[in-house]
Write a structure and sequence with these properties.
It contains 2 helices and 8 strands. The protein has 123 residues and is an alpha+beta fold. The chain has 2 domains: 89 residues, no CATH class; 27 residues, no CATH class. It starts with 14 loop residues before the first strand and ends in a 7-residue tail after the last helix.
């Protein structure tokens, strides 16, 4: 179960992309790309977390010293001082906030279109 307790926010004023431009929620979602090589456990292209807006990304901290990490398969890897200690992640609460904002943007666009369309049916 995923329960949020106070982390859902509002990007209604826009969200900053990695290039510094502030865009709508929908434009931010459209900027997210598939990873060129990585796949999910269920065999489809993984999203490239580096293409998510910085407000959603969680970059790993750098190692403070050379560190040996035990992998799930029992092998060990060496992370050198200054290298990322882990992989980039994405904050699911912030991502849900972005998606909620995009739904509101789409709803506002739909309402404007319905007001302009003569004979449009109300739902």
């Amino acid at each position: 179960m995923f329960t949020d307790r106070g982390c859902l926010g509002s990007f209604d004023g826009g969200i900053k992309l990695n290039n510094g431009h502030v865009v709508s929620n929908i434009e931010a979602i459209k900027s997210i790309r598939p990873h060129p090589t990585r796949k999910t456990p269920y065999g489809i292209s993984m999203l490239d977390y580096t293409t998510f807006p910085a407000a959603l990304r969680r970059d790993p901290p750098p190692a403070k010293e050379d560190t040996e990490i035990l992998q799930a398969d029992g092998s060990k890897i060496l992370v050198r001082k200054g290298e990322p200690l882990g992989e980039i992640g994405v904050d699911l609460s912030a991502t849900i906030s972005l998606v909620l904002g995009a739904i509101k943007e789409l709803d506002a666009r739909l309402e404007r279109l319905e007001r302009r369309s003569p004979g449009a049916k109300e739902v």
